[in-house]
Amino acid sequence: MNSDNDTERTLKKGGRNTSGTPSIALLNRRLGPSPAPRMLTPYEVALLRQCTREVAKVTHEVLANRDNT
Length: 69
Prior knowledge:
It contains 3 helices and no strands. It is mainly alpha-helical. It has one domain. Helix 2 (about 20-30) runs antiparallel to helix 3 (about 40-69). The radius of gyration is 15 Å and the shape is elongated. It starts with a helix and ends with a helix.
């Protein structure tokens, strides 16, 4: 998976990967620091929606596993 390679590179350089999901990492790379506010592109909006779904899924799984222990 490409995100695993990105994480490995980040850790080798001494940095931390703070992205919770691959789509968040992609969105962070796509947006980067912005000097001024701007409208998101349709692609960026789709990535945000994907991030939301991924975070909700992981949260649901974590909470379900917590309740089972």
